[in-house]
Specification:
This protein has 513 residues and is of the alpha/beta class. The protein contains 17 helices and 17 strands.
Length: 513
């Protein structure tokens, strides 16, 4: 039986251009999706755009555009960013698509049928920037003394007829969920925040709005549009064919992983499972919330003018350097800072020096001293065996880390091996063996090319383009690198390798003029 894996990113608001925060979550999900594919899973990787709601409507208005035309333009820009970042998504869902509108309405009807929706009136605070209702007690003092949301977003007092979802009835079931399936929310520190929020008691959730109409009409009462978060969360269902449980993709339900930023954990760890329980649907396996990027020490914001477009970074530093930096710099789950200096350091130390030089030294010696042909696997010393044993364990160790979303630890594991290979090459000094013991030289170079093959194979999810180039130089053909299982078959000796070329050049700062 094929094992399935369903991973999602948030669907991003189309109120503005894509930035590095969006790219980050998507690259992380991409690494996971690519890794699971290599491990032989049938993967469904979903991403997309969140196009309804007041925030998008206002952004369109500010540009003097109709919301749909505006959403079309920004969604296209997101896809362009995804192409640049080489994100291997299987589906890109837009909440204005008919398939999504139908699914969201079907979910609504199911909730209604099950007696979880009632008509009332909402009176309270709303932050359009967060598209979130806040209780009075959650508000804090803003810089000008006015009350603002805990996120700093402006709030307004809203009073309008509204449908409600009886969320308050789900508190105990949610707490039971967190107790019985601790892995449902990761990391643990955030699980505790969610638990204490739920323990304080949940209010019913306002799930429709009447003061604007850029949204999905409530079935049977089109004066109301669905609250944008109920609409948005339903995307995870619509993309797999809900409510048609005979749809081929329905086999992927429930998702194995919702990857989100910490800003939207509440929606995914509280509202979402409650809505699914209310609709009698199986729950996702896990919600993982990662940390926050600041830019050169500052919060990224339009008003500070420091919003980073990942495409600009790619132009300067190259795609894989940026993908690597994003995954390496931020301990997955923690917060981190994006700075030019830090990118250059990672590129020069870890990519150019550690990995790039290892490959270059090994391959240039094969080219020069082995006639450009892959040496045969020879007689192995204890040192050889130790290095190769560490290498062959790598895919499994990393797989366990990837399943815990420990994407940074998994990289660290590879770098341990890269450093071990560098010590090995220094210690064995194959360039000296050339004269004294050419057979041993060939054996050493073969140990290194075998270790490098594993290194480059497991790094493909992080840096697909560069690892492709490295694997080609190592003489590894496509079918020999598309699954971890292929690693069990040694490459034939004597294979002619292409001329080696550096994969990771050092980054030199352009001279200041
Ligand atoms: O919240 N650092 O969309 P959104 C790290 N439409 N990640 C960041 C980031 C930063 N500085 N800034 C943004 C929404 N992100 C809803 C989601 S899902 C059913 C609906 C990433 O456009 C992070 O993943 O505001 C965060 O959760 C997401 O972008 C918010 O994107």
């Amino acid at each position: 039986m094929t094992r399935r894996y369903y991973v999602t990113t948030p669907i991003y608001y189309v109120n503005g251009a894509p930035h590095i925060g969006h790219a980050y979550t998507s690259v992380a999900a991409d690494v996971i999706a690519r890794f699971k594919r290599l491990a032989g899973f049938d993967v469904f990787f979903l991403t997309g755009t969140d196009e309804h709601g007041q925030k998008v409507e206002q952004a369109a208005e500010a540009k003097g555009m109709q919301p749909q035309a505006f959403a079309d333009a920004v969604a296209t820009d997101f896809r362009d960013m995804y192409d640049t970042m080489d994100i291997s998504y299987d589906d890109f869902i837009r909440t204005t698509e008919p398939r999504h509108v139908q699914a969201a309405q079907a979910l609504w009807k199911k909730l209604e049928e099950n007696g979880h929706i009632y008509l009332g009136a909402y009176e309270g605070w709303y932050a359009t920037r967060d598209e979130c209702f806040y209780g009075e007690e959650e508000l804090i003092d803003g810089p000008d003394g006015r009350k603002v949301a805990p996120t700093g977003a402006a709030v307004e007092w809203v009073k309008e007829p509204s449908y409600f979802f009886n969320l308050s009835k789900f508190g105990d079931r949610l707490l039971e969920l967190y107790e019985t399936r601790p892995g449902f929310i990761e990391p643990a520190s955030r699980r505790n925040e969610v638990k204490s929020f739920v323990k304080q008691g949940l209010r019913d959730l306002s799930v429709s709005r009447t003061s604007f109409n850029w949204g999905i009409p409530v079935p049977g009462d089109p004066k109301h549009v669905m609250y944008v978060w109920v609409d948005a969360l339903a995307n995870y269902l619509s993309a797999v064919g809900y409510p048609d449980e005979t749809a081929a993709r329905w086999a992927f339900w429930p998702p194995n992983l919702h990857l989100v930023g910490k800003d939207i954990l509440r929606f995914h760890a509280i509202y979402w499972p409650a809505l699914l329980m209310a609709a009698d649907l199986p729950l996702p396996e896990r919600v993982f919330s990662h940390g926050w990027w600041t830019i050169e020490g500052q919060k990224m914001s339009k008003s500070l003018g420091n919003v980073v477009d990942p495409r600009d970074l790619v132009k300067t530093f190259g795609l894989d350097a940026i993908r690597f930096f994003l995954m390496r710099e931020m301990p997955f789950g923690g917060d981190s800072d994006l700075s030019r200096r830090a990118i250059i350091t990672r590129m020069n130390v870890e990519l150019a020096n550690d990995l790039g030089n290892l490959a270059q030294r090994t391959l240039s010696q094969v080219a020069r001293n082995c006639d450009g042909k892959l040496p045969a696997q020879g007689k192995q010393t204890d040192e050889d065996r130790e290095l190769l044993a560490t290498a062959s364990l790598l895919p499994d160790i990393m797989h366990q880390q990837i399943d815990r979303q420990a994407l940074t630890d998994a990289l660290e594991e590879v770098w341990k091996l890269i450093r071990a290979c560098n010590s090995y090459i220094d210690h064995q000094a194959p360039w000296k063996l050339k004269k004294t013991d050419p057979q041993r030289m060939a054996d050493v170079l073969r140990v290194l090319t075998d270790a490098l093959r594993i290194i480059a194979t497991v790094l493909q999810p992080y840096m697909p383009g560069s690892m492709d180039r490295m694997l080609i130089q190592l003489g590894v053909e496509e079918g020999e690198r598309s699954t971890f299982a292929a690693l069990d078959v040694p490459l034939p000796a004597g294979r002619v390798l292409p001329k080696p070329e550096g994969v990771f050049p050092r980054y030199e700062e352009p001279e200041a003029s």
